[in-house]
Amino acid sequence: MQKAHAFGLDTLESRQMLSVSYGDGFHHDDDGGSIGDHIGALTLPTLPTLPASPGTKTTADYATAQTDLAAAQADLTKVQADRTKVQADLATFATDQSKLRTAVSALLANPTDAIKAAQDKIKTDETAERTALKADYAAIQAVYVKDAPAIFTDLKNIFTDLRTHNTTQLATAKALLTTDQATLTSDLAAPKAQLLADRKALETQEQADRQALHDAIYGDPTVAPLYAAVQADQDTYKTDLATLQADTMSFITARKLVFTDIMTLNTDIAGNL
Fold it and tell me: What is the pTM of this model?
């Protein structure tokens, strides 16, 4: 379980709700940046120069290529605008995130009664955890103290029987070992189950109390508007990033068509078509 002494913003940012704002959206330089890098390389080709007296097919194919090139240029213009928008989104988020961090730090430096109570509740949870789990581990250890000596004796007897080639006694010792091991497994079942049950209950309680602390902080009037702004920034970023990705794919498709047109034109020109 997490330790309650780390009440700072970094710990809280690791919580589920904060991951929506910080973890899932805006340190994605890879998302916005990598697409942007590809955009820089996605330049449009130049159509070949027509001969002085192009043939009918060449003329028709050239007109098609010009139309496709214009469409690809329009798609590229969209992508460039999308990239600018995503970069602006990231800048807005950085500003709003900084404001949020400052507000949370100030609040934690001078916490309200609600926040103090939530912090104290988590400390109480941790004390309860240490007490309960200590008792559970002690119960498990008591089983080993009770049952382990018999197993060690069985193993010692097996070793002696092997060394002396006492096959009759060896079979007896092995059977006794199996019985004693089964006893240990059976005796451990209840305290292990209690440990797992206590741990689950304690973790559930602490998670709820940490969520309460999160809510007290991010619901505070000095923080809530800034937190809402950061969440809105992420929503805008995700929408604009999806648009950038879609427009980039459209551009790539359009550019491929232009390359196909150029190959056709080169064939036309070479064949005086």
Answer: 0.63
